[in-house]
Structures are given as structure tokens and as C-alpha cells.
aldehyde dehydrogenase (NAD(+)) (Kaistella chaponensis), 516 residues
Amino acid sequence: MSQSIQDFGIEKSLSNLGISAENKGVSSGGKYFANGDLLESYSPTDGKLIGKVTTANTADYDQVIETAKKAYVEFRQIPAPKRGELVRQFGLKLREYKDDLGKLVSYEMGKSFQEGLGEVQEMIDICDYAVGLSRQLHGYTMHSERPGHRMYEQYHPLGIIGIISAFNFPVAVWSWNTALAWICGNVTIWKPSEKAPLCGIACQNIITEVLKENNLPEGISTMIVGDHVIGDKMVNDKNVALISFTGSTKVGRIVGTNVAQRFGKSILELGGNNAIIFTENADLNMSIIGAVFGAVGTAGQRCTSTRRLIIHESIFEDVKNRLVKAYGQIKIGNPLDENNHVGPLIDQQAVQQYLDSIEKCKKEGGKFVVEGGVLEGENYESGCYVKPCIAEVENSYEIVQHETFAPILYIMKYKTLDEAIAMQNDVPQGLSSAIMTTDMRQAELFLSQNGSDCGIANVNIGTSGAEIGGAFGGEKETGGGRESGSDVWKYYMRRQTNTINYTDSLPLAQGIKFDL
Ligand code: NAD
């Protein structure tokens, strides 16, 4: 029996979040406007139109930049702990809207409601983190080699931070960037993914409320809905000091090159090809849960999704059989219904890429132990629901080296741990990795300089999901960027070294004499 969206209260949530049937996709200085093409946002859940958005044209973009520039001059003068107060209030507002926003994320993007709520929780967590950080933007002091001199480092804001985000984390990635950028004294311009524009508008409505209540310039947070044309304008605009880009390696390569060309700064958070090594000493009960959740959660559309399992030959058949059994229990359907484990892919194009990858894998010799396919009929009208599948492969297959954003899990055998680590590292991407073992020596080897080459390396935890307290990001074709916790805030500031002479003479550094 199919359930209508009313049963899940989505219409009420849309209304609470200020989403209408027709929306303007530019928000700048408290005004909503837009003069570009019309974009329609369809839910991959039921294929229905959720709302229309007028996107930005290039003149709209110029207006946004001017508003942001003005807001920056005012905002950078507000003390950091007071900027933290803005973020604290934003975190409180997010708590109020958690349910509605989590639901919209689920409905517009297709991840499960629980994962939608989890995404909003990440936003709340980064706000809490940033509030404390707003009193800790420390620089070093150092001893000068010259008498009567003092030296120290301080951090200043950068200016305008441009955030270009991917569809699969349609709200959290924005907040990871903004919470830090704001406490550091920057203003932000966000181009959400054109595949989840309503999530962008909902977030912008929430922060606009906070800015209004505090009588702060609304240009502190601006948003501009558009496609690659607007994205490209941001990337090439000298007014934008830092581009934080989350998306595919293909687009990231263009973005990184163009920003570097103008000596701008960038944070690149690109594709992953994440593996878990199952050693002969793995606790299989927990390992299987970690692997299955990592592979099928968000229908395989997380940058940290588990794409490869590298399994010790002695347990290969056992693990394979357990996986087949576990996959047999997976429920696929409306992600707002908490009985389902897996929702739809984002759109038909993603479905086609999934099918093409399966074909390619078969051509290269892949043996499917759990078959894939597109689900049809009642409850699957959007045409975006696919079956999570598993293929036995070689790591060297071209398709295995490539990130397919879908629930396809590749399994392969190894003999020695060195060989397994080499396989784990032998892909172009370097985001997340994990080892399942109860042997301390194996775990430590995996974490050592001879181990995983990824930005994230876990022991007895899957590859997907990360806490905001750590720096998040990856190496190689994942782009090298870091977001979120640790000392990542430094990316959003410029470092200045100051030397002060409090004597009445002018000694030069390195003992150089220059007498007149
Ligand atoms: P995508 O690269 O297609 O699009 C990402 C964003 O880039 C969108 O907002 C898009 O409009 C914009 N864009 C497209 N062309 C552009 C251009 N020439 N200049 C500037 N902007 C442009 O990615 P997607 O399909 O939305 O997301 C999936 C990808 O994102 C996957 O590869 C996934 O691994 C990656 N991702 C990475 C992380 C991470 O933290 N490493 C997190 C989430 C997603």
C-alpha cells in the first residue's frame, strides 16, 4: 500500500520552511529576487514536482557580490566572540527546524529521514563547535632575535567565501563552511546544487531570520541558485577570496585550476573510492554491518560510501555468503518511511550511470553475486529506485578505479596485509578507508606511514560518516581539502606575522649593518 506525501507531513514542513510552489533563487541583503531561467525541483522519492525556482542570471550575481562586499566591511569589525553569538543563535534555530529540514532533505535528495535528521544534527554540532572556537582563534607568539622586539602571528578574515556544494549533502556542507567562515569574520555566498535548490532556500530562510533578529547585515549570508554558469563566475571572480568546492573530481579539477590561476584559495572536497579491509582477524558480525551500511546507506551516494571490500582469502567465502544474506534483507522504498533502509538515486541520469557501470563491470569480467537492476511499479514511480548489488572483481578493473555514485559494492581477495594495503591505495582517490581487525599490529600498520594513504583511516568502523570534531577530507584526486573540525578554521583566515620594535634604535635582522 503506497503512502502519500501528506502522510509524512512534507507539505507542512515545506510551509514551515517558507518554501512555496514558486521561489526566487537569489537571496541577498534580506531580499529575494532572480531573473534567470526557471528550475523545477522534482522529488526522486515519488517523482512529483516539489517547487519551481527562478535561478540567477549574471546581473543578479553582480548584485550579490556588491551586497556581500558591503556586509564584509561591517562584519569583520564585530569581535569574534560576538560573531560566535550569531552562530549560537543559528544553532538554536536549527534545533527548532530540525524535523522540517530533515524531512525536506529526505524528500528533495532521497536519503532516509533518519539520515536527513542526521545531516541537520551535523549542522547543529558544527555551530556548537564554532561558538567555542570563536574565543580560540589563537596565533603563536615567538621570541625575536632582536632585543626590544616582539613578534607574533595573528589571523584576519579573508573576505568573501564562495561555497559551491554537491547534491548529496544539500545542507550540512554549507553549514560546515559557514559556521567557521562567519566566526572568522567572513561573509559567504552559497551556490547550492541545482539538484537540491529548495534545501538551499530553506537554509537561507533560517539564517535570514537570525540576521534580522540581530539587526545584522543580511549580506553576511547570501545564496544564489544556478548551474555551472554561476559556479564558473564565482570561481573566476577575484572578489571571492576562497572557493570551498564540494563535488565531483571532474568539476573539481576545473575549479581548482581556475582558482589557482587567479591566486585565489580553494578547499576541494571531491570524489572518493573508499575501501574496507576485512582481515582474517575481523569481528565479522560488526564488520558486515559496517560494510553494508557503508555501501547501501544514502543509496551509495555519499562521498565516503564503501565501494570496495578487500577480504582475506581465508574468510572470503564466508564474508560473501553473509553479505548476500544481509542484502537479501534490505528494504528499498520511500526514504521518509523509516521501515526502508535504502531510498532512490537522485535522478534518471544517476540511474543510467549505475546501469552503465554494471554493464562495464560485467564486460571487464566482474561476477555479480547480488544482481542489480531498476525497480518498477507501485512505490517506485519516480524510476530512481535501484537494487544495491555486489560484484566480485579485480581492483585493477577500470570501473573499479572509478567512483560510481550508486550502491555497487566491489569485493576482492587478498593474501597478505601488505598486498591489501597496496590494493586499498591503488586507486586515484584518497578519501576514506578502514580496516576490520582485532589484531593491534594489523591496525597500527594500517594507520602508519606504510598504511592507508587516505585523509580518513578508521579501525573497526566503516568508511562512511564522520564526526565534525575532526578535519574532514581526502588526498590525491579527492582534492586535498579539509573541512569541519580540528584546525580547519585556519583555511578561512589569512595569517599575518607582526614584529614590533619598542626601542629607539633600528637593528636589522640577521645582524645586517646599514649605517648612514
Ligand atoms: P558535481 O561536480 O556534478 O556538482 C557539484 C557542484 O558543482 C554543483 O553545485 C554544480 O552546479 C557545480 N558546478 C558544475 N560545474 C561547475 C563549474 N564548471 N564551475 C563551478 N561549479 C560547477 O557533483 P554532484 O553530482 O553534485 O555530487 C557528487 C560528487 O560530489 C561525488 O563525486 C562525491 O564524491 C562528491 N562529494 C564529495 C564530498 C567530499 O567531502 N569529498 C562530499 C560530498 C560529495
Observations:
- The chain has two domains: 5-270+479-495, 274-467.
